[in-house]
Design goal:
single chain; 231 residues; alpha+beta; DNA polymerase, domain 1; Cytidine Deaminase, domain 2; 2 domains; five-stranded mixed sheet; 9 helices; 5 strands
Length: 231
């Protein structure tokens, strides 16, 4: 059934206005963003096709503009609107952690989980903290295989000093899903801890993000908890 053929009170946009977003299904919320369907095809069917194509909202939100446009009925304007909506939600999720005290590995993992999920290459981040250990900002240092060339102390501490951070937390992901640190991970950590002492920017921890699976009950590990960072 086309939207215009529905009783006015049952149309997604009108129900959203009168009852709020919780009253709508995923397809209906997507239909509100899409606004219109195609000739003879309801916008609700286009929304349903989007979910079927990408499997779930998480993968839909990660789709590129071109991938979104591969779904019949989704042109560039609709694809850009969807990308903007999902991007805004990501910003909202990040905003939850602004000015948050980062003291425990679980807090860091919760903050980083959506950011690193499904990344196909290792990405190295620093979380910059103030004197009260509250998050100032996140910075991407490098992408690719983690080694001492890609993770040079200069590139790690330059943004931290510019942000007037008193401490940082190192974070990187293992695309394999296994967060167990390699010898290279441990060596890089020791090098950065030493550099931080010289520069008076404390390295509080190095969190490696992976995935739950096999005998693993959590998707991260803390090099501080493993004894590789002291003080």
């Amino acid at each position: 059934m086309l939207i215009r053929e529905m009783p006015e009170g049952e149309r997604p946009r009108e129900r959203l206005a009168s009852k709020g977003p919780d009253a709508l299904s995923k397809e209906e919320l997507l239909a509100v963003l899409l606004r219109t369907g195609t000739k003879g095809r309801s916008v609700l069917l286009v929304a349903s096709d989007l979910l079927k194509t990408f499997g779930n909202l998480h993968d839909l939100a990660r789709a590129t503009i071109d991938e979104l446009q591969s779904v019949p009925g989704v042109g560039r304007d609709k694809a850009v609107t969807l990308a903007a909506a999902f991007g805004l939600f990501k910003k909202l999720s990040e905003e939850r952690f602004e000015d948050t005290v980062m003291q425990q590995p679980e807090q860091v993992a919760a903050y980083m989980r959506d950011e690193v999920r499904d990344k196909s290459v290792e990405t190295f981040y620093i979380l910059m903290l103030n004197t009260r250990r509250r998050l100032i900002k996140r910075h991407v240092v490098s992408q690719g295989i983690l080694d001492t060339i890609l993770v040079h102390p200069r590139e790690v501490f330059r943004p931290a000093i510019a942000a007037n951070a008193s401490a940082i937390i190192l974070v990187h992901n293992h695309p394999s899903g296994d967060p167990t640190p390699s010898e290279q991970d441990i060596m890089v950590t020791h090098d950065l801890v030493r550099a931080g002492k010289i520069l008076r920017v404390q390295v509080l921890d190095h969190i490696i993000m992976g995935a739950v699976g096999g005998n693993r009950t959590r998707d991260y590990c803390s090099l501080r908890e493993l004894g590789h960072i002291n003080g």
